[in-house]
Amino acid sequence: MDPDACFSMILDCVAAEQWAEAAHHAEDLREWMMKGGFPPGGGKLRKTSIYALLSRLVGHPKRDD
């Protein structure tokens, strides 16, 4: 997985209010990171901030719209 590309897709989906797609990518990236994969941002973003965003997207109320 390319976490930077995945994170970019997440941001594009959020901008377009495509919540289901954003949640799908967030789940993928969260799983990748939980298995030891490196986070997006080349170390410039805090892991805790990334996890918080991913968790928020996975549980987004409009996810199933």
Question: What key phrases describe this protein's structure?
Answer:
mainly alpha; 65 residues; 3 helices; globular; 63% helix
The span between the termini is: 27 Å
Class derived from helix and strand content: mainly alpha
What share of residues is helical? 55-70%
The topology string of helices and strands comes to: HHH
Rg, Å, rounded: 11 Å
Strand content: under 5%
Mean pLDDT rating = 93
Which ranges are low-confidence, i.e. pLDDT below 50, for 5 or more consecutive residues?
A: none
Largest sheet: none
According to DSSP, the number of beta strands is 0
Total DSSP helices? 3
Backbone shape: globular
How does the SSE layout of this entry go?
Blueprint: H1 3-15, H2 19-34, H3 47-58
Helix pairs in contact: 1-2, 2-3
Put the structure in a nutshell.
This protein has three helices and no strands. It is an all-alpha fold and 65 residues long.
Describe the structure.
The chain is an all-alpha fold and 65 residues long. The protein is built from three helices and no strands. Helix 1 packs antiparallel against helix 2 and helix 2 (19-34) crosses helix 3 (47-58). The longest helix has 16 residues, at 19-34. The mean pLDDT is 93.
